[in-house]
Amino acid sequence: MSAAVIKIENLVKRYHELVALDHFNLEIKEGEIFGLLGPNGSGKTTTINCILALLSFDKGNVEVFGEEMAPNKYHLKQDIGIVFQNVAVFNELTVYENIEYFCGLYIKNKQTRKQYVEEAMEFVGLNDFKSFYPKKLSGGLLRRLNIACGIAHKPKLIIMDEPTVAVDPQSRNKILEGIVELNKKGATIIYTSHYMEEVEQICTRIAIMDKGKNLAIGTKEELKMMIKTGETINMEVLEIEDKNLEEIKKLPHVYQVEYKENKLHIKCSKGKHNLIRVLDYMQTNQIAFGRVYAELPTLNDVFLEITGKELRD
Amino acid sequence: MFVRLFQYKVKRLFRTKDELFWCLVFPLILGTFFYMSFGGFQDKQETFQAINIGYITTETGKDEDFDQVLMLLSKDGKDQIVRIKTTKEEEAKKLLLDKKIAGIIYNTLEVTLTVNGEGINESILNSFLNQYIQKRETFTKIAQISPDKLNEVLELEFKDSSYLQEIRFTNASIDPMTSYYYALIAMTCLYGCFAGLSSAIDIKANMSTLASRRLVAPTNKMKIILGDFFGAVFVQFICTLITVCYIIFVLKVDMGQKINYLMLTAFVGSLIGVTTGLFIGSIGRQSENVKSAIVLAGTMVECFLSGLMVGNMKDIVERHAPIINRINPATLIVDSLYSLDIYDTYDRYMRNMISMLILATILCIGSFLAIRRERYASI
Amino acid sequence: MQVFKAYFKILRDSIPGLFIYLVIFIAISFFLSGSGKESTATTFTKNKVKIAVINEDEGGLGEGLKSYLSQIHTLVPTENDKEMLQDQLYYRNIEYILFIPKDFTNKIKNNEKEHLCENVKVPASYTGKYLDSQVDQYISTLITYVIAGIDDKQALEYTKSDLEKEVSVQLLNESISISKADDYYYFKYLPYIFISVVVMGISPILMTFYKKEINERNLCSPMTLKTKSIGLVAGSIVTVLGIFVLFLVFAFFLYGKNMEFEKTILYIINCISFLSFATGLGYLVSIFSSNHNILNMITNVCGLGMSFLGGIFVPREVLGEKVIALSKFLPTYWYVNAVEAIQEVKINPSIMKEFQINIGVQLLFAIAMFAIALAGTKYKSDARKQVS
């Protein structure tokens, strides 16, 4: 693919005793929607603050657009847009003025700026709220304003730090659609979240991080390939003997069998015809079963397998 | 760019209710309190209220002339000075005890005064009696030495003449309560600390996400801070001018002739107010609430020491700890205004202004050093 | 009990902030009581003023005036240098400058009566007026003698001896102390401090309880409004008493030597009455203000307003009649009245009645505050009205 937009090498950041980033590496290419996935406190925001040169770090380097990032690299900052986790807008300025203010920090030309601000408002759907003060906006609308302030200047790189926290599903979908649209228009996007569904839905490549480490990286398919589980077969079984469970486990590709609360979970590694084999076995042994469904692995499974804990804790 | 940042800061401040209250509404309310409290003072001086007294006299041995003078002075009308409430001793004593009268004048063998404590009315009675006795002494002497001239001097006595001419080194005319209004102006200027504080917080990434957002923009940090800073000074200056106008035009307090210097002081005062807030905001990592409590309490103390609550506080400080007066911004502002009244030259005024500018510069440099840090250890 | 306990748990968090306030206000009260003493014009005890007399008179009369003034005041020797005089005036090394011009004697002899001398005084000072009247009296007496044809030397002597005559002033009662005791000023200024410290001390905590979410949560519990209010009021009272004891201890520390038992008891009664009002005010404010900033605003406006208009910062005599009429609607007026009465009580026991009235009115104010506050709580507890 094309050149690296962000390149992080061996980044180490300590807060006293706590190691927030532990030799973290990351490379993001142009045109990607890159998902940074990890539980709360895993170092996502720290990573972003380091990329933006807001935080000092102990070791490593950060390159943006092929250049080392520093607080005074204004030509680099020009092309970055950031949507912070917390809503950061001026309460005393209206929706329009807020976007205009932040856009104005990037775009000097008055005409262009005006046009950009209009476009940004259109984009997040805040046209009807142009002269509202942020206090009067609902949570979802406020988030959208927060986003508009970050992207109005049409940056090449957009960093979004959990932009959908505490947002109603409608607004969330609107935001996600918007992100894809921005990407189509040519922006590279970094998207952090601890909602796997979102990341799965829109990201082209994903990094999973925990405790400041980059645990796995790749497209969602690649990530799912990395783990053992190919598919999980769930069936409702009223009664089954331990002997049968042992036998199921011996079927090809099956590596874990669990029976609880009248449900049988069979985890299989990659391979074909897993389901048919299991169904065959059930029929031959005359075990009655109800609803059967197979699940492909989710990012949660990936995360669970890599870190040994659920993502959303 | 700078102009735009400046404009936005001004816009924001004028839309902040807290800011407007402290910098605009509060000074006007306080000024009105002053006016209500001291307004009566001038009325009292101009329309003199007759003092209630008890007058005890005996038929024998009394000073007839005094009797006449007193009757004249207690006659109802515009020139009434005393009002005789009683001529019975027992009643008079009772009234005096309850402070219903200011004093009892005895005209028996000699003229004496009995009071119950001290106060303005008591002292007026005292000096009135002193004058009478001294005059009586003088006329008695003249009557003995050159009785032929007595009529001439008595005539003179009834002519009002002003022997003394008050001159001032300046042509300002101020009334006793002006110092309160000076302190009020100082307070208004120093409330710039709130705007300064918010400017600092809006540029410290470790205090607000807003600051982070502004810092990641390709605009120089100094430019942002200067835009905010001058916006804050400008708003503060406007607020102070409104307060000054209110004092001069609505409350009709004479603020002297040197309005342009008054404005300069208001400007430098606003500057120092904003830098104080900027400094407090820049150093340390206390929460915004703690910081605004600190600046509010600090400003109140500064103003208190410059005479906002008690007019002569500045003089007391001057006597006991003059150094405080040299560095307390509120006192420096009051002194600048005050020196315009005392001096016809501007040396002293300039010295105060320079002290303020030095103070502002130190605070500014301190703040900039604290803010200058480009990356934060933690956010 | 639950509420009462919670009250102190919250108070514990705000102690550092409250402590800063207490220290500042104790310092202020110390300064205030000191300044009250200094600012009062002492009438019967003559105080010497630092003055400068620039005598350029070519005749002898000017010298007479100068030596007269030097006897009753402190004469600071100075040059006739404007810069220097201005500096001296600025730093209050001198408070009054009298210029006796070259033709002073001549003018008097020629029967001229206007502008014989010039003076400069500290702007806006009482001492200036005091000296003016002395100089006026001197010159007018002197002129009288000169016109009467008495020679200069004799005239000066007569003038001096005449001006030494003064009316004899008696005090109604032996035990009246002419100047007010230090504790008078201390207690007179306390209401300002009390309003500030009490409101800042209890309101933030009460506000926490009346915050919409917490209030609603409490309303869902089986605790009755009465129980809750009692808990809060009890918590507030304990806090306020704590603050009061602190200021009382400070008063004893400073003025303990001079304070008589009876006076002290009356001071305490007066303070407690006023504190009940302040507590009520704090309670009321906390119900109707939504954040600390509003609290700050109300405290400052109420504290300063009541102090200026009620005659705490400014002597009652200075206030206009209309303001005094208005100030009767402020508890501070009655507090100050009571403090004045306390000064008299020893020589005039009948004033106790007035004292009682003053206390009564303050308590009425307190009751009014609590009544409004309780009505407010009731209103707030009716959740239906809260939905907006």
Automatic annotation (TrEMBL), chain A:
Report if keyword Transport is assigned.
Answer: yes
Give UniProt keywords alphabetically: ATP-binding, Nucleotide-binding, Transport
Question: SMART domains in the record, alphabetically?
Answer: AAA
SUPFAM superfamilies in the record, alphabetically? P-loop containing nucleoside triphosphate hydrolases
Residue ranges annotated as transmembrane are: none
Q: Which GO terms describe its molecular function?
A: ATP binding; ATP hydrolysis activity
In what residue span(s) does the ABC transporter domain sit?
A: 6-236
Descriptive protein name: ABC transporter ATP-binding protein
From TrEMBL, chain B:
Which superkingdom heads the taxonomic lineage of this protein's source?
Answer: Bacteria
Question: What membrane topology is given?
Answer: Multi-pass membrane protein
GO cellular component, alphabetical, reads: membrane
**Domain ABC-2 type transporter transmembrane residue range list:** 20-366
InterPro entries in the record, alphabetically? ABC-2_transporter, ABC2_TM
Q: What is its main location?
A: membrane
Q: Name where it's found.
A: Membrane
Task: Quote the Pfam families the UniProt record gives.
Answer: ABC2_membrane_3
List membrane-spanning regions. Answer: 20-38, 180-203, 224-249, 261-281, 293-311, 353-371
**Keyword vocabulary terms for this entry:** Membrane, Transmembrane, Transmembrane helix
**Does Transmembrane helix appear among the keywords?**
yes
Q: Would the keyword NADP be found if you checked this record's keyword annotation?
A: no
GO molecular function per UniProt? ABC-type transporter activity
- Name of the molecule in the record: ABC transporter permease
What species is this protein from?
Candidatus Galacturonatibacter soehngenii
From TrEMBL, chain C:
User: What is one term from the GO cellular component aspect held by the record?
Assistant: plasma membrane
Q: Which domain of life is it from?
A: Bacteria
Principal location: membrane
Q: Which GO terms describe its molecular function?
A: ABC-type transporter activity
Entry-linked Gene3D superfamilies? abc type-2 transporter like domain (3.40.1710.10)
Q: What's its membrane topology?
A: Multi-pass membrane protein
| Keywords, alphabetical | Cell membrane, Membrane, Transmembrane, Transmembrane helix
The UniProt record lists the ABC-2 type transporter transmembrane domain at 18-374
Q: Name one Pfam family in it.
A: ABC2_membrane_3
Protein location: Cell membrane
Question: What residue intervals traverse the membrane?
Answer: 15-32, 189-210, 230-255, 267-288, 294-314, 355-375
- According to UniProt, the name of this protein is ABC transporter permease
